[in-house]
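[Meeting: bench + compute handoff]

Bench side (C.D.) handed over the final construct sequence. Compute side (W.E.) agreed to return the predicted structure before the next meeting so the bench team could plan truncations. Sequence as handed over:
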Amino acid sequence: MFSVLSKHIDDLDKTTSLWESDVPDRVATIGHIETLVRRELHADAEVEVFGSSAVGTDLPKSDVDIAVNHDTIWKIWLDQGGDRDAPQDIVNEAIKTDMIHAARKVAGAIRRDPELKKRKVGFTIAITKCRVPLVRTSCEINGLRTGIDIVFGQKNGIAAAKWTQHMIESVHPELRPLTKSVKALLKQKGLGDVSRGGLGSHAGTCALVCYLNHVKRQMKDGKEGKRGEKDGKRGEKEEKEDGELDAEVGTVDLGEAFVGFLREMGKIDVEKEVLTLERWRAPKPSAWMTEDEF
């Protein structure tokens, strides 16, 4: 029923999936920014790409997200005896001054850099009046104007990228093409801008993982039910403690999963329900406030 849609989703994935060798301009630009950051902040600074461009769920015009981490950014926090691996929100309150300082230095360096001027660097600004200060700029990469966001002292995005990569490689191989298709649809309909109440890229990925868990759990239960009719018992559980499923459970049809996901998302009562890895739709915890309640 969904064979044509499945082919279109697969084609979208294949035509937008690029190896590093296919995007030398992007690799060179990111490498140059890495050199510039280390020159301005510290030679040992960790500069890592995260987000969709790191896990292969990016579209041709997706922004590139870069995280910069080093003790110089956590200086105030570490001087107070804080742990750099403490919860991010707690650390952010203490290191905001250091983040602003780092953002302004890097933004100034980008504006002055002759190599980036050759790459037609766009308007560069250090955005400091927000919860997490960042540098926002853009360059022409492979003929496309590409936004670049640089954050400082943040590890959540890197951890999220590793989690997504694990999901794609070991649990849900359908996640990458489905994520791209959902992102393309949201962008086309003007529903992907978080600042306007839209669904962000990582939130969409998390929702898809919850949905795929739900579908494959049903597949697994169906198989085990049939097996139980023969041998009188169910097979061993393949579900892990955090609700994650093993890839051996099977794959789902891309078109069917895409339509099913949209239908299920349309049924959610956002005032009363949340998505989880274990149950798909679950009652919203009483401690969670709605925007109106807040």
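W.E. noted at the follow-up: Strands lie at 46-50, 64-69, 125-127, 134-141, 144-152, 273-276, 280-283. C.D. will use this when planning the next construct.
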